[in-house]
Amino acid sequence: MDTVLQNLGSIPCPHGDRCTESGCLFQHSWNKKPAASASAKHDGPDADDNPRKRRKLSTEPTQSTPPTTAEPSQPNPEPVTAKKPVSPPPLGRKPTVLSVQSSPSEAPATPATKPAAVSSPANPTPEKSAEKKVPIRKAQASRKVETLNPRMLKGVAPATFEFRFKALTMLHEQFVRLNKEMEKAAGKDAESKKLLLTPQELIWLSLDLEEKIAMDKPSIYNNVIKNRIMGYKKMTPKQWKAERLAEIKKEEERKAAATQASSKKQALLGPPKEINTSLTPQEEIAFLPHVLTSITELAQYGYVPKPPSEEEIKKAREGVEAAMGWETCDRCTKRFQVFPGRREEDGALTSGGPCTYHWGRLIYPERNPTSTVQQERTYRCCKQLAGDSTGCTSCSTHVFTVKSPARLATIVPFMETPENPSVPKDRAVCFDCEMCYTVNGLELVRLTAVNWPDGKELLDILIRPMGEILDLNSRFSGVWPEDLINAEPWKPVAPLDPVIDTDSSSKPPTTTTTTTTTTTTTNNNPPEPDQRKKMQIVPSLAVARDLLFSLISPTTPLIGHGLENDLNAMRICHPTLIDTVLLFPHKKALPYRHGLKMLMEWNLNKAIQVEPDADSAADGTTGQGGKLLGHDSAEDARAAGDLVRFKIQHTWARMKREGWTLKNGEFVPPKDSKGKKSGGEKLTKVRKTRDGTEEGELVEV
């Protein structure tokens, strides 16, 4: 039955070209290709023998001709019609020239060049076609072959498809004309020949220009595209050559600027801004109560003002037992199961296989003020559009994060900062924590504490996690397996109290050389052990927390960026905090926030978290770890301290304009008209904008 229906395609339709049936089985004038292929088989055996001979060049059997010639005599034309459109052109025939001068909608040039190896030397056509392919640029070889068809736009099209297609065709015709005229005028000029475009490149140029006009200026698309077509109609070959040279030069400058921007970030930012608070270090510490950030009402954003109750911990423990180890991956959002202590069958720590993800965040490109089309978000790591791929980086296991304070307390309980009479009252500490992924979620792996405002190191240790490590997250934590292997047990070799230079009243805080050495590496491996700081390690989180408690008291200001993450990792509830996330709030308020790196660039023109080989890793092709050294917790802690000093500089300047004075190391508020202190006898502090006051407004305690 199928053979009978297929044979109807060779019979002319009774209605001819007036037939309106959408699925008519008869032959029409617009589908005579099967008839042509059927007639071609009667011209001779070569038409059908050529593809078979081409597939059997290695053997070339002489007895293969009889079975191939017997096939055309069969009444069923199905094999012929099925193979004709797919098979390459016959050997030694002129259609091979189409690989150079054909339109993109036709067969690619690759099959046409293969017969050149079989054809006789007397036929020069394949050799000429191979010579004409030389001008094709390698830089665009990876682009997808496209036809002269308007591209689909994400938003609403600025015009109908018919108008866009007609405009695109006219634009392409002018490009072809100018390219041919420039080829004639070039003669033997090698420089001009390099500017010639292939047919596919002319189509790409037409599509790119039409798409750019449609996206950038949709409201006046019709007028703009018409003017561009008229402009190219009046353009001479000399003007076309100048435009091509300008485009090539512009592209080279753009690539050079991008390379320079990624490798010389600090040079682009300009000289770092100097911080001059006009206060001594002791006076700066005394000023800190004016910039404290309260977290009593921020529990919904991850801050833990007080430890969870026993009842909350019990419910969280029951929930963990009921979940049976099932978690959601923090990177790819897939569900997987965790096996603390390893699974007995195969010793696996997690299920679900490897994890593929994007390590960079989604960002919006720079907005064009004249465009009404919504810009698409791209990943910072690989510059791919959102939804184009599942990820650019792969990890052997899935990972997860625990954010519930009650569940965190089931592993290690929270503790409030105990009283410590030995801690000086005029001390402030900047600290930063680095975490890694284990079977318990995110666990502390490095703790760094520096004195404020001079930046001298107080504590810098590694912590051995409680659970089995899934991923050290070295790209961000800066901790590599070699660091844990080569670390020595912690030993108190000197008092933790630094010596503060009281004479450096106007000097900015000095940066010590205790941070990790960021030596440039030229391979895809982590830095060599001798290039990194020799770290000390403590056996548990409880020991690291006790060491931090030996440096602070409940009244000691703790300074950092995103302190809810660090304090939760340490399981600490501290009442006196200065969080730069709250000190420099986002315009949309929490949970939106600015990154530490961005705040340093905006406010102080300083580049932090700069990788030594940023040029090679900018495209995101390197894997987890790659050529990166990771973040340095000491650098991040000092950066948070610099931002606090920058805030004090501007806050104190505003307070002096309002009448505040400094007498004997104390900040005295201005007096009102009745001679009373407007600020009261007690100290004042900055309230959050959530309370209805403006940022930096002073209210009475």
UniProtKB/TrEMBL annotation:
In terms of CDD domains, this protein maps to: REX1_like
InterPro entries named in the record: REX1-like_exo, REXO1/3/4-like, Ribonucl_H, RNaseH-like_sf, RNaseH_sf
User: Ranges of Basic and acidic residues compositional bias?
Assistant: 40-51, 669-693
Could you confirm whether the keyword Nucleus appears in this record? no
The protein's superkingdom reads Eukaryota
- According to the UniProt record, where is the region Disordered? 31-143, 498-533, 663-701
Keywords attached to this entry? Exonuclease, Hydrolase, Nuclease
Name the family the entry cites. Belongs to the REXO1/REXO3 family.
Q: What name goes with this protein?
A: Exonuclease domain-containing protein
> Which species does this protein come from?
Neurospora intermedia
